[in-house]
Structures are given as C-alpha cells and as structure tokens.
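Z., the sequence and structure:
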Amino acid sequence: MNAILNIIQRQISYGWDALQDIINVPKRQRRLIMVIVCVALLLDNMLYMVIVSIDNCLNIILYSIS
C-alpha cells in the first residue's frame, strides 16, 4: 500500500512541477487562462441547459395538472 501511495505522491509532484513551469512562462500563462475560461464557459453552458430543461419540464407538468 505504501508503494502505491509513494507512486501517486511522485506523480502528483511531477504534475505540480509541470504546472509551476507553465505558470512561470508568460505566454503559457495566457494559454492556461484561456483553457480555464473555456472550460468554465462550457460548464456554465451545460448547467444552463440542464436548468432550462428542468424549468421547461416543470412548466409542462404544472400546466397539464391545472
């Protein structure tokens, strides 16, 4: 079990070092920010679609009941 945890810790350390390398280069900072913004917009759009779909379903159900 300790061997697996050591491997995971080493992989996380490599990932953190790679992220630090990306953050330290200004051109890569802009790309990282663009990726973060694009993912945030995608998730926001997905959430909006789910909420609108639920709202439409509730309106249809409530209209059919009354």
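The first helix runs from residue 2 to 24. The CA atoms of residues 51 and 57 lie 10 Å apart.

Let me know what you think.
H.
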